[in-house]
Design goal:
alpha/beta; eight-stranded mixed sheet; two-stranded antiparallel ribbon; 11 helices; globular; NTP transferase domain-containing protein; transferase; transferase activity; magnesium
Length: about 250
């Protein structure tokens, strides 16, 4: 049985996005990376990964990607990523693999490693440890999340394994809605959890327990062995880095 895939391709700025302007394209997802649109690279990787499909793409302007989408279903995205995921999952169901159109370096082996390690979770998120990223992509500047037992960067790979994983998406939606109101975020997560996160005394197991208490879902951070999996194309310097990596790895 194939695993459905959701690709998030939305952009808040559309054709005004910095990367869209840089690539002279109508949407960030169409930005050429080493001569091929980012979205096309992601779709090609999904097609080459055994056991995946069908594919759904979420984007605010479906017309701009119809020539690239192939047999994929295109949904109009919601105002935020969390809402887009929630709406798509209502149609796709679970389990479902979620990734993003700006994951231009995505490789089948990363997906296979992630899925193998994510089994048994209601929701899993792929991450790369800071030491792994700095080993494999020396000099790169990534955004890291610091827990007491690990520092990591996200890899834009998620598995919503069961309907309970949908509850975590609802928690994400509430946090996004309150992102400019720290007190409400604290009330949602719990003040103790927030304080431990700020002081870096929150470990991964305590985080899992708190999320399970709030959502009933068993969640896990799945560490990937290749630090390049944490490189997405979100700014001009990322584009340069991605093309350098592709030049080194493409025959």
């Amino acid at each position: 049985m194939s695993l459905p895939v959701l690709v998030l391709a939305g952009s808040r700025d559309g054709e005004n996005d910095v990367l869209a302007k840089l690539g002279r394209v109508s949407h960030k997802a169409l930005l050429p990376v080493a001569g091929q649109p980012m979205l096309a690279r992601v779709l090609d990787t999904i097609a080459r990964t055994p056991g995946l499909g069908p594919v759904t793409i979420s984007i605010e302007n479906p017309d701009c990607i119809r020539d690239l989408a192939g047999n994929a279903t295109i949904l109009r995205s919601a105002p935020s990523p969390s809402e887009s995921v929630a709406e798509a999952i209502d149609r796709i169901g679970t389990p479902c693999l979620v990734t993003t159109a700006d994951h231009a370096l995505l490789r089948p082996e990363w997906i296979e490693e992630f899925l193998a390690k994510a089994q048994g979770c209601d929701l899993a998120a792929g991450v790369a440890l800071r030491t792994t990223v700095e080993r494999d992509v020396p000099g790169t500047k990534r955004t890291y999340i610091h827990l007491s037992d690990m520092s990591f960067s996200g890899c834009n790979l998620f598995l919503i394994g069961t309907p309970k994983g949908r509850n975590v998406i609802e928690l994400w939606k509430r946090l996004q809605q309150n992102r400019k109101q720290p007190l409400r975020m604290a009330l949602t997560l719990g003040l103790g959890t927030l304080l431990r996160a700020v002081t870096r005394t929150l470990d991964s197991n305590a985080l899992y327990r708190r999320i399970q208490k709030l959502t009933g879902a068993n969640v896990r951070l799945v560490t990937l062995s290749d630090g390049r999996a944490a490189v997405d194309v979100d700014k001009p310097s990322d584009l340069t880095l991605a093309e350098q990596i592709l030049a080194q790895t493409t025959p």
